[in-house]
Amino acid sequence: MNATIDQFQELLAAFKELPPTPQRDPTTLELSGYPHLENVYSNILAFFLDPEREHGFGPLFLESLLSVAGCEAIQDGEKVEVNREEITGTRKQIDLVISTDTLIVGIENKIYNALHNDLEDYGRHIDNSANERRVCKILLGLNLPDDRELFGFKPITYQDYFGEVLRRIGPTLIGSSDRYRQFALEVIETVKHLTEGSAMKPEMLNFFQQHEEDVDSLLQAVNEFKQEMRNRVTALWTDFRPNFSNITYYRWRQSHKLYDSVGYEIKIEDGFTLVIYTIISPKGWKIKVFPKEEENFQRVQSWLKTQRGNWREETEEGTRYQYDSSVDLPYNNTEISEVVERVRPLIKNALNDSSSPSL
User: Fold this and answer.
1) How far apart are CA 153 and CA 148, in angstroms?
2) Taking Cα atoms as reference points, which of 121, 189, 133, 158 lies closest to residue 42?
3) What is the pLDDT of residues 203-255, one digit of tens each?
4) What angle do CA 127, 132, 137 make, to 5 degrees?
5) 57 with 172: CB under 8 angstroms?
6) Residue 261 to residue 249: CA distance in whole angstroms
7) By CB neighbour count within 10 A (0-12 exposed, 13-18 middle, 19+ buried), where does 267 fall?
8) Could you list the mean pLDDT of each consecutive 10-residue stretch along the chain, which spans 359 residues?
C-alpha cells in the first residue's frame, strides 16, 4: 500500500492520542546488552545463593528461595556448597545444585528459552545424590509451563522469588556490601523489566493492529529519507576530506532520530580537541562547534567571536555547543559545495590558529 501524505498525517494524529509510555532508566545488565541470557542469571544466582560469598547477605537469597518453594530451611551454621552445571549420569547439565549436610537442591533456571530440558534425568540425579538428605527440586523462571510433567520440580517465578527476597531484605542491609547491595537491586529491577516487557501495552498493540499497512508505508518512507540524508552526508565527506594528521572525521547518526552528520575533530594541543559538526535534518543543514573537553568551552567561545557567522550557545543532551544561526541552508536547493564553503574556513582557521592564545 502506498499511503498518501493525508494518511500519514491521520496516522501521526492517532499516534499522538495514545497514552504516553512510562520512561525508565536502563539497568547495568540492560546496558551490557545481555539482560536475558540464562547463563548470566545462573552465575549471578550462584553468587548470591552462597551465604559465604562477599555480598554480605548471608543466607537471605537461599532461604527466600526455599521458603517460596515450600522446602524446609537450612540449619544454622550448615556449610553450603553451590555448584554450576553439575553433570548427570547421562552427561547432561543441571544449572545449579546446592548441597548441605542435610539438604540437596536442584535448580533449573529459565528466562526466555522454552523448557526442553530432561527434568526426569535431572530429578533422578538429585535423588541419587541425596544419600538420605532432604531433596528440593526447583524450576525457576519468568514464564513457566503448565502443560508438561515436571518430575517433582516445583515451578517458582522470579517475581515470587525476588518478592520474597525484598520482603526479607531489611535486616540484612546493614551487613551487606554497598557494591553488591546495589547490584542485587539492579538484577531484581532488570527481571522486573523483562517481566513487564513480555507483553506490549494493549493500546500500542491495538494501534499497530489497526494501522499496520500505514505504519509499514511510513517506515518505508522514513528509511528512504534517512538513506537520502546519508547519501548527502557521504557526498560531503567524500568531497571534503582534509588530509591532516591531527584531524579525525566520521559520520554519525542515531538510529531512532531523523538526522545525519559529519564530525571533524581537530587536535589543537594535548587536552584540547575542537569538534565541528555538520548536521543535516529535514529542516536543513546546521553547523555546531564545541570542545571535546567541557573545560575548554570558554576558549571556543572566544575563538568563534573572530570567525564568520552569528554564533549562539545551546545545550542538547547535556552537551553545550555553539551554532551559527546565520547559516541558511535549507534541505532542498542546497548544493554540497555550499556546505563545504561554510565548513572549510572554520577548519582552516582552527588549524592556522592552533598555536594562538585565543584558541
Assistant:
1) 11
2) 158
3) 787 888 888 888 999 999 999 999 999 999 988 887 766 556 678 888 888 88
4) 35
5) yes
6) 11
7) middle
8) 75 82 72 74 90 90 92 85 86 88 89 74 87 89 74 88 89 80 87 71 82 90 93 83 71 88 88 91 93 90 89 86 88 90 88 58
Q: Which residue has the cell 550462584?
A: 46
| Main-chain phi, psi angles of 249, to 5 degrees | -135, 150
Provide the grid cell at 136: 528440593
How many CA atoms lie less than 13 Å away from 340 in the CB half-sphere?
14
Say what the pTM is: 0.57
Say which residue the cell 554540497 belongs to.
Answer: 336
Q: Give the count of beta carbons closer than 10 Å to the beta carbon of residue 157.
A: 17
CB 330 within 8 A of CB 303: no
Query: How far is 137 from 130, CA to CA, in rounded Å?
Result: 12
Residue pointed to by grid coordinates 491521520: 10
Nearest to 44 by CA among 92, 109, 104, 89: 109
Element (H, E) at 343: helix 336-352
Handedness of CA 320, 308, 244, 295 (dihedral sign): negative
Q: pLDDT by residue (tens digit) across 126-174?
A: 888 888 889 899 888 887 766 667 888 898 888 899 999 999 888 877 7
Q: What is the rounded CA–CA span in Å between residue 356 and residue 359?
A: 6
Residue 42 grid cell: 545462573
- State the Cα–Cα distance between residues 282 and 308, nearest whole angstrom: 25
Amino acid symbol at 278 = T
The grid cell for 208 is 499497530
Burial 335-356 (b: 16+ CB within 10 A, else e): ebeebeebbeebbebbbeeeee
